TrEMBL record:
InterPro entries per the UniProt record, alphabetical: Lipid/polyisoprenoid-bd_YceI, TTHA0802/YceI-like_sf
Lipid/polyisoprenoid-binding YceI-like domain location: 10-183
PANTHER family named among the record's database cross-references: PROTEIN YCEI
Full protein name: Lipid/polyisoprenoid-binding YceI-like domain-containing protein
Family: Belongs to the UPF0312 family.
Pfam families: YceI
SMART domains listed in its UniProt record: YceI (SM00867)
Length: 188
């Protein structure tokens, strides 16, 4: 979906157009027992403003309660359905999602790069705002435009304490990789 004028337009995206995922690591003495998680958000919206085919602004927001555990790599055993439910519950507690139900990124500067663009902006999460840089790669494929944005976000930048167990010998790593990939058809 988009709104357009002669020189400016806005592309909007949601879950039907791509994926918003978080990738966690694991640390601590017992890290081999833990899972590196891929979490997906099922309620989110991305808006990209363009002027003369150059991006001028980006906003991405998500409902934290929409988090789903997609997979866990590593660990002693595969994640079961009930374990995924526990992981989701623990993640929502870390986010304090009942008190702070949304996360939102707003760009403040857009720089064109060789393979796309770089966004400088502010992420609002857990009642805290912190600067974040997002690298966006663009690619044309079979009549469509694909955008993939990647950023690293640290729990500690937002006053979040990563989930841990066994007296801290197994815990989620502070940095989390965030990735959003969307595709827009040429005729959209």
């Amino acid at each position: 979906m988009s709104s357009e004028s002669a020189s400016s337009k806005t592309w909007t995206f949601g879950p039907a157009d791509g994926d918003l995922t978080l990738h966690t690591g694991v640390t601590g003495r017992a890290s081999k027992m833990g899972h590196r998680l891929t979490l997906g958000m099922t309620e989110w919206q991305l808006a990209v403003d363009w002027s003369d085919d150059v991006p001028t602004g980006v906003t991405l927001s998500t409902e934290l309660a929409s988090l789903q555990v997609r997979k866990g790599e590593g660990g002693l055993t595969p994640l079961s359905g009930p374990e995924k439910a526990v992981v989701k519950s623990n993640a929502l507690k870390v986010f304090d999602a009942k008190k702070f139900p949304r996360a939102e990124f707003r760009s403040t500067d857009v720089t064109v790069t060789d393979d796309g663009f770089r966004l400088a902006g502010t992420l609002s999460l857990h009642g805290t705002e912190h600067p974040v840089t997002v690298e966006v790669a663009t690619a044309g494929e079979a009549g469509a435009q694909r955008l993939t944005g990647r950023a690293e976000v640290r729990h500690s930048d937002f006053g979040l304490k990563p989930f841990s167990m066994a007296m801290g010998s197994l815990k989620v790593a502070d940095p989390v990789a965030v990735e959003c990939t969307v595709t827009r058809g040429r005729n959209d």
